[in-house]
Amino acid sequence: DAGITQSPRHKVTETGTPVTLRCHQTENHRYMYWYRQDPGHGLRLIHYSYGVKDTDKGEVSDGYSVSRSKTEDFLLTLESATSSQTSVYFCAISKGGNTEAFFGQGTRLTVV
Amino acid sequence: AQSVTQLGSHVSVSEGALVLLRCNYSSSVPPYLFWYVQYPNQGLQLLLKYTSAATLVKGINGFEAEFKKSETSFHLTKPSAHMSDAAEYFCAVSEGDSSYKLIFGSGTRLLVRP
User: Fold this and answer.
1) Residue of B nearest to A93 (CA)
2) In terms of DSSP bridges, do strands A10-13 and A107-111 run parallel, antiparallel, or are they unpaired?
3) Is the distance from CB of A37 to CB of B85 less than 8 angstroms?
4) What is the pLDDT of residues B64-105, one digit of tens each?
5) Cα separation, B101 vs B79, whole angstroms
6) Distance separating alpha carbons of residues B87 and B49, to the nearest angstrom
7) What gap in Å lies between CA A35 and CA A33, rounded to an integer?
8) Which of A97, A111, B4, B27 has the fewest CB atoms within 10 Å, measured from its CB?
9) Is the pLDDT of residue B47 over 90?
10) Which pLDDT value is given to residue B17?
11) B34 at the A interface (CB within 8 A)?
């Protein structure tokens, strides 16, 4: 299995609070991605990183920010959590090109 | 922007029957195409990928997919379904730009009846 760890695996938080999810990799892959999975929508890209301190927005980036200060860590922050951000969040890593992306086990976030 | 369409949010087959999961993509250039599988409460696992070396791609667990450029399709098949194949399947396409990000279809849940 690819060395990719998400933490926490489960979290319940209150509306309006900030939340940070962590993705840690031991594969030294250049590319890292945050997706959210919701029924009927598949996986939608939130943000991605193509190197340390190099990040860009995906299709559903509103309300989220990211940071990558080290190759191995990619943080996703919900600045002020809302109920619409209740979802399962997946981190993925890739070497780029025509190589596969490896996925973490996911973080189930519930905003109440 | 690229998009992926998976026809049928749920597909039900009998054990031993043919599995066919459909995927169509929009692309004006040869894409990178992938099929992933997700078992309950787990992350996604790669089944197979299209590399342009061959139009018929074989993957794990007896699955294969055929790239048809004229139909912009990349359907997933398995000759004989097994109970353990019950899962959700996602087709994905790479943008082909420098981000290499994947665009996913909405997924197809495969149910296998005994």
Assistant:
1) B101
2) parallel
3) no
4) 999 998 899 999 999 999 999 999 999 998 876 777 788 899
5) 31
6) 18
7) 7
8) A97
9) yes
10) 98
11) yes
- Find the residue in A nearest to B37 (Cα): A103
Residues of A in contact with B53 (CB under 8 A): none
Partner-chain contact A43 B90, CB within 8 Å: yes
Using the structure block, give the residue that is written with the tokens 């990558």.
A68
The Cα–Cα gap between A73 and B14 comes to: 44
Q: Categorize the per-residue pLDDT at A89 as very low, low, confident or very high, splitting at 50, 70 and 90.
A: very high
Interfacial A residues in 18-37 facing B (CB < 8 Å) = 31, 33, 35
Are residues A42 and B106, on separate chains, in Cβ contact within 8 Å? yes
Cβ atoms of A91 and A34 closer than 8 Å: yes
Average pLDDT, chain B: 91
- Measured CA to CA, the distance from residue A23 to residue A32 in angstroms comes to 9
Confidence of residue B38 (pLDDT cuts 50, 70, 90): very high
**Token digits for B92?**
């994905």
On the 0-12 / 13-18 / 19+ scale of CB atoms within 10 A, A53 is: exposed
Q: Are A42 and B104 in contact (CB < 8 Å)? A: yes
Decide if B59 touches A, using CB distance below 8 A: no
From the list A40, A41, A45, the residue facing B101 with the nearest CB is A45
